[in-house]
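Escalated from tier 1: zinc ion holo job.
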Amino acid sequence: MGDSVHFTELGLANTREMFKKAVNGGYAVPAYNFNNLEQLQAIVTGCAETNSPVIIQVSKGARDYADQTMLRYMAMGAVQMAQGMGAQIPICLHLDHGDSFELCKACVDSGFSSVMIDGSHLPYEENVALTKKVVEYAHGYDVSVEGELGVLAGIEDEVSAETSTYTRPEEVEDFVKKTGVDSLAISIGTSHGAYKFKLKDGEEVPELRFDILNEVERRIPGFPIVLHGASSVIPEYVQIINKYGGKMEGAVGIPEAQLRRAASGAVCKINIDSDGRLAVTAKIREYMAEHPEEFDPRKYLGYARKELIKLIKHKNEAVLGSAGRV
Ligand code: G3H
Ligand code: 13P
Ligand code: ZN
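Tier 2 regenerated the structure:
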């Protein structure tokens, strides 16, 4: 295998078929971020055991952390591991939040089957031009491309219509037509990380902007929509972390019922990273506190991996609805 490799040589799939089925079937394909072996083993096991299609995604930071050659073989290992478990599930290797043409090209060349070009911070026309350039290159290799319109709120932002960080539905048709993207990430009130909303005492998590999602769907019916920042920040994990010396007061995420609603409509890819991080951190903290004599990483990482498998199966079965959809 030379320096350049096509994703089909690794046994991977692009998102096209996955998304077509998800749009028609009223569910979302899970996109789980990974950086290391145990996370990937848990993703493969959880998705194989629930018979779910899956997108394994790598951020720029994860790519720097794990090394792109290592990642390529890990992805190939994931495919073969799933097959060894008797699962016929499609696995897509996706670049999460690509920030330049060069990075997207490097990923296409190194065996990724899908890339995201995130030009959402750019002025509209620049976002269009950059996204189009990535699409032209990626489609030459049958690699699918995700674009983004609208900026996800940061924790400091006031999520309100006035700040206009939400996706503007009037732009989506033009963007999709001009760029040729295969899917579109939109901003309807989710945000990255474990602190998605600053709630005062007694305040409830605000509802996502389903009105914007509906309007987007009306303008580009059947087009695959992606939801970033979609972790639920499961309170049980936050409690364990805080109990065993962590400091995560005020961590809060997107309620599962809202994600189920989004998944049953136009949203066909849901990105989850923080929930996995929380599960692993909670279980490692718990294990370390309860087994102070232990120093074999396999013990605490294995314990955390078991929880991650449980979490992934729960997401696929009860939240995204992707279980049994291959
Ligand atoms: O969208 C961001 C993902 O959660 C990846 O985060 O850049 O820390 O790897 P990261
Ligand atoms: P969370 O931080 O909510 O898990 O979002 C992850 C994400 O959107 C990765 O692109
Ligand atoms: Zn994201």
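The longest helix spans residues 297-320.
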